[in-house]
Amino acid sequence: MSATKKPRNNRKGSSTRLTLLLVLLLVVGLGCAYEFGVARPNYQKAWEAIKVIDNDSDPSNFTSVDIDEAIGQEAFKTDDSIREDCIVKTYRWRSGLLVKNHDIHVVFTKFSPLMIKRNPALEDTYHYYSAVAGQPLDPKQNFPIQKETIVQNLNPPPVNMGGG
After folding, report:
1. If DSSP codes are grouped into helix, strand and coil, which group holds residue 51?
2. Within a 13 Å sphere around the CA of 131, how many CA atoms are in the beta-carbon half?
3. CB 50 within 8 A of CB 103
4. How far apart are CA 58 and CA 60, in angstroms?
5. pTM for this entry
6. Angle between the 40-54 and 64-71 helix axes, to the nearest 10 degrees?
7. Using an 8 Å Cβ cutoff, are 31 and 97 in contact?
8. From CA 1, how far away is CA 95, in angstroms rounded?
9. Residues 1-57: pLDDT tens digits?
10. Is the dihedral of CA 77, 120, 143, 48 positive or negative?
């Protein structure tokens, strides 16, 4: 007689782990296929369209509608809280790996309130200014220079040099 015990085979546990690993491998494989087959090529194509507009002789002739048509989709998010004279539209492509998204931020300038008061049709018209992809917006490079009004008194009061 043998005094050693035969080890029990835990087939149910190992088959469950194998199934779980295969499902995880399938999900990651599908994510990679989507990332490199759909998301990234569409993002690159949109960025190329933006660069063509950027290299135009006068890119400010392009409106937000023109940019939407060139990219082939509407903006994911519109932000007008950064500066009063600009809006920022963010175009997003979901990554297949769920780690990060592919974003393109486009800055548009608004018409001044006085021009909108004269012509109300201009209220929803925005003109292209700049764009950035894969990084956050830089206030010095991506936004128009703000004009500062310097108030100077051209008729200062006379200076009394005497003690009287």
Report:
1. helix
2. 25
3. no
4. 5
5. 0.72
6. 140
7. yes
8. 63
9. 556 666 666 566 688 889 999 999 999 999 999 999 999 999 999 999 999 998 888
10. positive
